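Purpose: get a first structural picture of the assembly so the mutagenesis plan has something to point at.
Setup: two entries, given in the order below. No constraints added.
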Amino acid sequence: DIQMTQSPSSLSASVGERVTITCRASQTISKYLSWYQQKPGKAPELLIFGASSLHSGVPSRFSGSGSGTEFTLTISSLQREDFATYFCLQTYSTPRTFGLGTYVEIK
Amino acid sequence: QVQLVQSGAEVKKPGASVRVSCQASGYSFRTYDISWVRQAPGQGLEWMGWISAYTGNTKYAQKLQGRVTLTTDTSTSTAYMELRDLRSDDTAFYYCARDFMISGWYLFDSWGQGTLVTVSS
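Result (structure tokens, whole complex):
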């Protein structure tokens, strides 16, 4: 199985700050990597697919980069509604595997 | 718009079975696959398996092989997840998600609202 190592597990940031979250795959996954946002009590929502493509309706302050084994989600200017948990997911092979998540809280 | 609506919360005793439904609307059900994902309270996400709504082909996480069965009913655009021989560590929110491909990349673009399954004696 492909292991997804996500870091950090949590971070504190202020509104307006730039935030970066990383996922590393245990083997190459090309760009079969997507990012999701999950708020308490809600289902995850797709932000980024194909490592760097913005899903329809997602604000442009979200961006993704990377290929192979290292990937990054960046929020260019954190907004109040962005405080949530973020997960990466590899869809290169089955079983699909997720990162453990990054909890983004208000500083 | 695409919607996946799941059945309500369940409370089960250890050793019992549970079946969770996921009714799709807003798209051609047979055209897309469905994955099931679960999340224990306060924990990360775990992929359980996948079913093609077109062929009925399935693939399961090895950890759950033999205890989980995914099916679909195309007449009602509904996917089902059955988990047998429940244990306390099966307590989790269970989600269905449309397993979709855009520009060659696979992703989960729509999710059900989640179904809490509690296993307790």
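The mean pLDDT of chain B is 95.
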